[in-house]
Amino acid sequence: MIEHQSQFVHERRVSFSETDMAGIVHFSNYYRYMEEAEHAYFRSLDLKIMHRREDGIIVGWPRVNSHCQYLGPARYEDILQITVDIERLGVKSVSWSMGIYCGDKKLAQGRMKTACCLCRADHTLESIPIASPFAEKLEESPYLQT
């Protein structure tokens, strides 16, 4: 059961390619589901997960920490609901809380921290303050836990 009404919810169906021979989702896909829900969340705010600035430098959100506690299996053809909350909005990072559900059953609880970074042509990363309109839209989001 989804825990509170202010959560962003992304829904998806488990595909065959995500399962093992028993039709059970491989554990690594839970991280993919969380990332997919994060991207859907950004799109819901009319934001992009990465964009190229006029100077050619890409601004993106690499993960700096992640955790997933598995509570039960997802299976082929299950309809999953992935909930997304912002636990903490920092100056340079966002801490996310995510739940993965199939109907009333909670299958996993995850956490992820992403940092706003410049991705330079030489493949180096530099964390930067979250700029507008990102900061404003995230601060105004109904999914920010207070």
TrEMBL record:
This is 4-hydroxybenzoyl-CoA thioesterase. The keyword Glycoprotein does not apply. Belongs to the 4-hydroxybenzoyl-CoA thioesterase family. InterPro entries: 4-hydroxybenzoyl-CoA_TE, HB-CoA_thioesterase_AS, HotDog_dom_sf, Thioestr_dom, YbgC/YbaW. It comes from Rubinisphaera italica. It comes from the Bacteria. Residues 23-107 form the Thioesterase domain. It is an enzyme of class 3 (hydrolase). Keywords: Hydrolase. Transmembrane segments: none annotated. One of its GO terms (molecular function) is fatty acyl-CoA hydrolase activity. Its EC number is 3.1.2.23.
